[in-house]
């Protein structure tokens, strides 16, 4: 099966046809909205501060307090940490992000490793935590257990920078397989779609934002 990520499996859940054009045919590119571009700029500002001590731009001043506190936290810091995970006969192993046998891939905004504990931070720039999904935290935590065998506990957090909300979740190494399995049902559906080459569209109000303008359900068609 094609390597997957949290974002790609969420795309498939929302609309298999959209996934097909973006990830299989690759005849469409999602250039992102103003909101996603803004979010990328915020992530970059946070990364540069943690990694190189670059001052936070004034337009992102509201994130300074959070990012400065994270920067002061003791431990080995990894920003925009790319991880590839492959399946092995007895579990999982780290691999290259784009290796042919990569099963899952993901990027952690900030990881701080301190002894047998790691901190996993995901910055969010959406207006509030109303639609927070901790499955993303589950996957990253599972991968961190693979990459850092000495880590036995991951303290994860979704930090909503605009609304100043934090969603926390603790993860434990003995539950790693369960964390990797949070999308098993959806992955079964994806595997079936790949085998049958059937990619049915899901219609809804979000169709008007979809980059697949060739779809009959897209108002831009």
Q: Uncertain runs with pLDDT below 50, 5 residues or more?
A: none
Q: Tell me roughly what share of residues is in helical segments.
A: 25-40%
What is the SS-derived class? alpha+beta
Fill in the CATH topology of the domain at 32-182: Trna Endonuclease, Chain: A, domain 1
CA-atom Rg in angstroms: 18 Å
What separation lies between the terminal Cα atoms? Answer: 31 Å
Give the count of helical stretches: 7
Approximate strand percentage = 15-25%
N-to-C series of helices and strands: HHHHEEEEHEEHH
CATH class category of the domain at 32-182: Alpha Beta
Secondary structure: number of strands: 6
Strand order of the largest sheet: 2-1-3-4-5-6
Mean pLDDT: 95
Characterize the structure shown.
The structure is a single chain. The protein has a domain at 32-182: 3-Layer(aba) Sandwich (Trna Endonuclease, Chain: A, domain 1), CATH 3.40.1350. 35% of the residues lie in helices and 24% in strands. It contains seven helices and six strands. The protein has 221 residues and is of the alpha+beta class. The mean pLDDT is 95. The protein has a six-stranded mixed beta sheet with strand order 2-1-3-4-5-6. The radius of gyration is 18 Å and the shape is globular. Helix 1 crosses helix 2.
How would you describe this structure in keywords?
221 residues; alpha+beta; Trna Endonuclease, Chain: A, domain 1; six-stranded mixed sheet; 7 helices; 35% helix; globular
């Amino acid at each position: 099966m094609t390597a997957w990520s949290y974002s790609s499996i969420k795309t498939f859940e929302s609309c298999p046809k959209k996934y097909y054009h973006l990830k299989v045919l690759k005849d469409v590119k999602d250039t992102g909205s103003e909101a996603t571009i803004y979010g990328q700029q915020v992530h970059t500002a946070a990364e540069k501060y943690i990694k190189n001590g670059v001052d936070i731009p004034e337009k992102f001043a509201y994130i300074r307090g959070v990012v400065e506190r994270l920067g002061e936290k003791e431990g080995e810091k990894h920003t925009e940490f790319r991880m590839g995970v492959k399946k092995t006969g007895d579990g999982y192993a780290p691999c290259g992000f784009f290796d042919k046998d990569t099963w899952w891939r993901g990027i952690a905004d900030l990881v701080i490793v301190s002894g047998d504990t790691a901190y996993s931070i995901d910055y969010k720039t959406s207006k509030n935590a109303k639609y927070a999904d901790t499955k993303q935290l589950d996957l990253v935590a599972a991968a961190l257990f693979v990459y850092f065998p000495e880590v036995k506990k991951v303290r994860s957090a979704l930090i909503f920078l605009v609304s100043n909300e934090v969603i926390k979740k603790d993860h434990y190494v003995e539950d790693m397989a369960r964390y990797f399995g949070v999308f098993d049902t959806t992955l079964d559906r994806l595997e079936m779609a790949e085998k049958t080459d059937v990619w049915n569209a899901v219609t809804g109000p979000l169709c008007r934002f979809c980059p697949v303008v060739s779809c009959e359900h897209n108002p831009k068609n």
